[in-house]
Amino acid sequence: AQSVTQLDSHVSVSEGTPVLLRCNYSSSYSPSLFWYVQHPNKGLQLLLKYTSAATLVKGINGFEAEFKKSETSFHLTKPSAHMSDAAEYFCVVSDPTFVDKLVFGAGTILRVKS
Amino acid sequence: NAGVTQTPKFQVLKTGQSMTLQCAQDMNHNSMYWYRQDPGMGLRLIYYSASEGTTDKGEVPNGYNVSRLNKREFSLRLESAAPSQTSVYFCASSEVRAWVNQPQHFGDGTRLSIL
C-alpha cells in the first residue's frame, strides 16, 4: 500500500529566502506524485505532478520538485519565497494499480515573514 | 471556468439531522470523489465514482451515502449527522487514463458543523 509522510507540519521562512518542503513516499510500484497548495478557505490547487518522465518537475509560481527514487523523496522547493506563498501544502502519492485513488500527506503549513 | 462547484459553502446541523451536499463539474470528467479534511490528517477519501452509474467506498465511508446522478453531479448524504462528522468536505473530479493518474480538480469545500 502506498503512503506519504510530510516531514514538517510547519515551516517558516523570510520573504526572499528559499523554501524547502519535505516529502517521503512509500509505494510498491512506480508512483505518480503530486504537490497541491491550499490557501485559506479555498480548495486544493495543483502545483506540479510527476508521472515517470523527467525527475525534476517544474510547476506553477516558481515551484519545482525532484523525484529521487533511491531516497523515496519528492521534496518541493522554491528559490525565493513570496508573501503570497503562505498556505498549506500537500504531498500526494498514487499507485498506477489504483488509478482512482490518491493518498494525501498530513500537510505542511508554510509561513512567510516580511 | 466554473470547474467543480459545491453547495452549500457552510452549514450547521443538529445531531441526528440529515443533509445532502451537492457537487457538479463542467469538465466532462469521468471520475468524481468526496473527501473530508480534518486538522493534521490531510484529506481522506469517503467515496468515489469512477464513472457514471458506479460508486465505491473509500477510506472512511461509514455514516455517508453517495449518488452519481449523472456524469456532472455527485452528491454526498449524511443520513443522521453526528458531531464526529464536523469537517470540511471537498468534492473533486478527474479524467482517468490507464496506468497514469491524472490530477484531481477540487471545489472550494463545504464547511459543516454538527452540534
Tell me what you see in this structure:
The complex is a heterodimer of chains A (114) and B (115). Chain A has 114 residues and is an all-beta fold. In chain A, 0% of the residues lie in helices and 53% in strands. Chain A has strands at residues 3-6, 10-14, 19-21, 23-26, 32-38, 44-50, 56-58, 64-68, 73-78, 87-94, 103-104, 108-113. In chain A, the strands form three sheets. In chain A, strands 2, 5, 6, 10, 11 and 12 form a six-stranded mixed beta sheet that branches. Chain B has 115 residues and is mainly beta. Chain B is 0% helix and 52% strand. In chain B, the strands form three sheets. In chain B, strands 2, 4, 5, 6, 9, 12 and 13 form a seven-stranded mixed beta sheet that branches. In chain B, strands 1-3-8-7 form a four-stranded antiparallel beta sheet, with no helix packed on it. Chain B is globular.
Give a short summary of the structure.
By secondary structure, chain A is mainly beta. Chain A contains no helices and 12 strands. The model of chain A has no long low-confidence stretch (mean pLDDT 90).
Keywords:
heterodimer; A: 114 residues; mainly beta; six-stranded mixed sheet; four-stranded antiparallel sheet; 12 strands; globular; B: 115 residues; seven-stranded mixed sheet; 13 strands; 0% helix
Task: Annotate the secondary structure layout.
The complex is a heterodimer of chains A (114) and B (115).
Chain A: E1 3-6, E2 10-14, E3 19-21, E4 23-26, E5 32-38, E6 44-50, E7 56-58, E8 64-68, E9 73-78, E10 87-94, E11 103-104, E12 108-113
Parallel strand pairs in A: 2-12
Antiparallel strand pairs in A: 1-4, 3-9, 5-6, 5-10, 7-8, 8-9, 10-11, 10-12
Chain B: E1 4-7, E2 10-13, E3 19-25, E4 31-37, E5 43-49, E6 56-57, E7 64-68, E8 74-78, E9 87-94, E10 96-97, E11 100-101, E12 105-106, E13 110-114
